[in-house]
Amino acid sequence: MPYWIRRVYAGKTVEIKKYYSRKHKPKEKRAKTGEPSRPEQEEVNIRRQTEQLRWKLNCNFQAGDMFITFSYRKDERPDTYKEMLKQKDKLIRDLRKQYKKIGKEFKYVYVLETGDKGARHIHMVIESMDTKTIKKCWDRGRIHIRLLDDTGQYGKLASYLVKEKGRKKMEKYGGKTYSPIQEFKTATY
């Protein structure tokens, strides 16, 4: 059976995958669907999104960069998802200003999450920055910072960030599973 090999170079990692080809009609267009994905297809979609986020994280972040959880005090929690989006936008604007002051481009990935008991928080992966500066940008609750390790392989982090879609589905949140503002660099050969 014919096959093809995909090599993905992302930061320190190289992933090689062997695919077997199926017969298909190259000129045939994909049909539009109006129905939600079946559970099996949803699992495939989540696996693909995790893979793509892993490549982006591996390629664009390194040891010393930060995985931050911005949590809310109980009395400061937003009531609606739209309020949470506005607060996230303000946080990103403030962080971008701080990065501009030190002459860096603000590269990030974020995921909005609501826990089982209703606690809302924002997960974000950013390049390394002074923690006091980050604290100036977020006064609504605690900040938990974990530094990325030097392996260059952030697959577990990617699957953690994508997990929310699998748990809560799109009806509640809408939009993408994770949200980087600009496209990151990845290389596939």
From TrEMBL:
Replication-associated protein ORF2/G2P domain: residues covered: 66-164
Chain intervals for the UniProt region annotation (Disordered): 21-44
Matching Pfam families: REP_ORF2-G2P (PF23343)
InterPro entries named among the record's database cross-references: ORF2/G2P_dom
Natural source organism: Anaerostipes hadrus
Name of the protein in question: Replication-associated protein ORF2/G2P domain-containing protein
Biased composition (Basic and acidic residues): 31-44
Compositional bias of kind Basic residues: 21-30
